[in-house]
Amino acid sequence: MIEDKDTQRTSLEKLGEFGLIDHLTQNFPISHTSTIKGVGDDAAVLSIDNSTVITTDLLIEGVHFDLSYMPLKHLGYKAVMVNLSDVYAMNAIAKQITVSIAVSNRFPLEALEELYEGIAMACKLYTVDLVGGDTTSSKTGMLISVTAIGEVKDKEITYRSGAKPNDLLVVSGDLGGAYMGLQVLEREKEVFKVNPESQPDLEPYSYIMERQLKPEARKDIVELLKNLNVSPTAMIDISDGLSSEILHLCKNGNVGCNLYEDKIPLDPTVISACEEFNIDSTMVALSGGEDYELLFTVPQTDFKKIRGNPNLSIIGHMTDAAEGAYLITRGNTKIPLTAQGWNSFETGS
Amino acid sequence: MIEDKDTQRTSLEKLGEFGLIDHLTQNFPISHTSTIKGVGDDAAVLSIDNSTVITTDLLIEGVHFDLSYMPLKHLGYKAVMVNLSDVYAMNAIAKQITVSIAVSNRFPLEALEELYEGIAMACKLYTVDLVGGDTTSSKTGMLISVTAIGEVKDKEITYRSGAKPNDLLVVSGDLGGAYMGLQVLEREKEVFKVNPESQPDLEPYSYIMERQLKPEARKDIVELLKNLNVSPTAMIDISDGLSSEILHLCKNGNVGCNLYEDKIPLDPTVISACEEFNIDSTMVALSGGEDYELLFTVPQTDFKKIRGNPNLSIIGHMTDAAEGAYLITRGNTKIPLTAQGWNSFETGS
């Protein structure tokens, strides 16, 4: 047999399932009094005074992430963020998560430790308790299933369905970065295949790469809205792209929407990357996805509270359902929004 | 291209992710007032008055199930049972579940409908609301990740850790059936490979095959204990085998245990299958796993309440931790319990 030169590889079989869970979760402190019992029994026990929100997402190797450029620590962090983002989109505060992972034997213990380091960092920064999960082997690749639990006062729950005609449409942060970061990473992967010695200067792309590899869920926006005394009428997080999320708000609230192209917030590095890749930046914002920003509606009366806030952009307003959902371009053309961005995309132009 | 002769195959791409979730979850009614919002927003919203318990389990094709003999409907049912069993093991009543699935394109819509039929049947029989989940593609095979949420009064929560010396050790139902059912199914799979025309008479194995393919979580036992006015001091469900679960109770409660071989409940079909396969039936009960029975401890004072109940078997009693955990054989030999059954198994005798 060929000797394994990497002394830092501990095989998972050595630990067994229970040893593995104990080992991986040993450095997770409990922060919330609502966590009565975390890891270590048949189920976790929580004591939540207000309403509970619960959401779950699966991340699968080869579908949602590519380990050739996704560091495991970032993957762990992102898996948590994706779920916390859904909790914040209910105007709730995330309190607990469970994390289940399946891995093939090609991953040594040290790889899982790195993954859990990212999970631990996310838990610490967002004050979330890891309370359970499952660890198992897989025949191929890695998958992560996270469930997040949050708490919210009954009156503050914000559904996708509450938007009213004339409400302002507001988005946090900027859009399209995660998608363009992915384009850069995919390109570098191809370059690396051809020339493993290449030393590309990725510094100009650091913002958009970070948007893809290490997104942040917008807990701060939920807190900001509370501080501004703004109660969103409807809210959703942007996982699939602005266009698709707007259509959810329209369908669930039975309203229409006018979205203004010139109001869509874009970071300068997104614009320059779009130019470099010859992609329309509006299209990227509308369809790119994975930005994990919050999209919400507020009554017109809240305009003064939001105007000029550097974290928030008013990008449109809701209309009667009969009027439909449209993008108003810079050239003042009205184009129907579709889940794929806009209609012209579908007809292949 | 070769035409698909099976007209009942609808490809998943046709529906898209949102259409698929809507389609699969349309026949799931909501039974509990604690379910404020189920499928259809960023997160489900629950309003739980008492303590919440939460547990999650992953089932992976090729690791936890084999679709060559596991009908998809049964798989859906079992995936729910595995999780409900953990909720009942906390002495709680399951109220909600989320179900995430990943499937490769080899599965048509009709396969997922069958899977969800089993999930729906489990939800109906156990009065559980499906409140969320995730549906995604996988590069290979199928996986199911279920999270179950239950409710329990604070005083009634039963941890693994509460057993005291002299407590009676009690198990519901009978043991070893699921493991022997698996042996039969694996054998028939091999027979089928050699001779696809064979028509085996599986009727004698129907009980143990059902224990493997369609296990039931013991909600009835939680209700029975309440009716008998018995408060277990510790409880765990039997997923890995009696021996491993007893050791959990011992470790978590800092107690020892004497388990009596002649008290272990075995169905006659398990005994006869063990004879046929030349396997020791005690070993099967100790190490087989997947029986999803409840194992719990009660004070000696509850002896009269439990004695003679056809659903319950008193199989031993707890001791001081220093005395260790032992199997007392029919021949009155004392053998240390190990997670794999007993020690002589490990030494290969």
TrEMBL record, chains A, B:
Annotated Mg(2+) 1 binding sites: T56, D57, D134
Binding-site residues for Mg(2+) 3, renumbered to this chain: D42, D86, D237
GO MF: ATP binding; magnesium ion binding; thiamine-phosphate kinase activity
Record's keyword annotation contains ATP-binding: yes
Highest taxon in the source lineage: Bacteria
Domain PurM-like N-terminal, chain residue ranges per copy: 40-152
UniProt keyword list: ATP-binding, Kinase, Magnesium, Metal-binding, Nucleotide-binding, Thiamine biosynthesis, Transferase
Amino-acid positions noted as binding ATP in the UniProt annotation, renumbered to this chain: Y116, G133, D134, R160, S239
Binding site residues for Mg(2+) 2: D57, D86
Sites where the protein binds Mg(2+) 4: D42, T55, D86
Binding site for substrate: H64, E290, W342
Keyword tRNA processing (UniProt): no
Binding site for Mg(2+) 5: D240
Function, as annotated: Catalyzes the ATP-dependent phosphorylation of thiamine-monophosphate (TMP) to form thiamine-pyrophosphate (TPP), the active form of vitamin B1.
Additional information: Reaction mechanism of ThiL seems to utilize a direct, inline transfer of the gamma-phosphate of ATP to TMP rather than a phosphorylated enzyme intermediate.
Record family assignment: Belongs to the thiamine-monophosphate kinase family.
NCBIfam families: thiL
Name this polypeptide is given: Thiamine-monophosphate kinase
Organism: Costertonia aggregata
